[in-house]
Amino acid sequence: MKLKNPPVNSLSLEMLTELVINLEKLENDKAVRGLVLTSEYPGIFSAGLDLMEMCGRNPAHYAEYWKALQEFWLKLYQSSLVVVAAINGASPAGGCLMSLICDYRILADNPKYTIGLNETLLGIVAPFWFKDTMVNTIGHRASERALQLGLLFPPAEALQVGLVDQVVPEDKLQSTALSVMAQWLAIPDHARQLTKTMMRKPTVDHLVKQRDADIQNFVSFVSRDSIQKSLQMYLQKLRQKKS
Ligand SMILES: CCCCCC/C=C/CC(=O)SCCNC(=O)CCNC(=O)[C@H](O)C(C)(C)COP(=O)(O)OP(=O)(O)OC[C@H]1O[C@@H](n2cnc3c(N)ncnc32)[C@H](O)[C@@H]1OP(=O)(O)O
């Protein structure tokens, strides 16, 4: 599956909805057992959540957007398919989250392709289920440091901390993803799927129990004037970077 939402594959409401629909279709197709997630645009895997969905909108929109994000996370994290992320570009914040909920991550070796949960750099806080996903992958201490500092790791460091499973030359990314997929598909589906469910259930349950409260929390947080100002300033900085 190729992410395709120009210019930076930001996770807009429409994109999240389409991703969930496509995942459902693939899961209902008995001929499909695995999925490689990559970007149509080498250089950018995903810029994360679409900042335009979080700026200057009304509370009902924020609630709808957050619910769609939760839906996407729940769908992909619990997918019965083998999901391999072939990360062919920068992967900040929500882009990193999307990679973390796959079963295996391969990052192309390019110093510009940084990955991490950088929310604090925007003056916002990664929600508990982003944090849980990261802790499950790299452990508590490394997550505490990475989350507080909003670290974006270049490939060698991402590999060292365990944020990705492999770093390969850019021209080997797709072939490596296919050979990793073959290795995972050699395991009987039912055994692998039950094991995945067992490993991920506590994290899923944590969110499921608090879904409504998490939406309310997001809406009230993002509606604050101070947060709106921080997000606007960050967007402005991104735009000024060009000039
Ligand atoms: C309890 C409450 C909790 C709240 C928690 C909320 C959690 C949020 C998680 C997130 O995902 S927030 C989003 C964080 N994302 C980022 O910090 C990435 C920002 N983008 C970049 O760093 C760069 O754009 C890039 C991805 C490295 C690509 O760089 P490049 O130089 O190739 O492109 P740009 O010129 O920077 O961008 C092109 C164009 O796209 C706009 N844009 C970039 N990122 C986003 C985004 N996330 N959402 C919306 N729009 C984005 C950028 O402004 C440019 O627009 P322009 O109009 O062409 O100037």
From TrEMBL:
GO MF annotation: an example: delta(3)-delta(2)-enoyl-CoA isomerase activity
EC number annotated for this UniProt entry: 5.3.3.8
Chief place of localization: mitochondrion
Pathway(s) the chain acts in: Lipid metabolism; fatty acid beta-oxidation
Keyword Lipid metabolism listed: yes
Catalytic activity: (3Z)-dodecenoyl-CoA = (2E)-dodecenoyl-CoA; (3Z)-decenoyl-CoA = (2E)-decenoyl-CoA; (3Z)-octenoyl-CoA = (2E)-octenoyl-CoA; a (3E)-enoyl-CoA = a 4-saturated (2E)-enoyl-CoA
The protein's enzyme class: isomerase
UniProt key word Isomerase: yes
Keywords: Acetylation, Fatty acid metabolism, Isomerase, Lipid metabolism, Mitochondrion, Transit peptide
Record-linked SUPFAM superfamilies: ClpP/crotonase
GO cellular component terms, semicolon-separated: mitochondrial matrix
Description of how the protein assembles with itself and partners: Homotrimer.
Function of the molecule: Key enzyme of fatty acid beta-oxidation. Able to isomerize both 3-cis (3Z) and 3-trans (3E) double bonds into the 2-trans (2E) form in a range of enoyl-CoA species, with a preference for (3Z)-enoyl-CoAs over (3E)-enoyl-CoAs. The catalytic efficiency of this enzyme is not affected by the fatty acyl chain length.
PANTHER family, A to Z: ENOYL-COA DELTA ISOMERASE 1, MITOCHONDRIAL, ENOYL-COA HYDRATASE-RELATED
Protein family: Belongs to the enoyl-CoA hydratase/isomerase family.
Name of the protein: Enoyl-CoA delta isomerase 1, mitochondrial
Organism of this sequence: Chrysochloris asiatica (Cape golden mole)
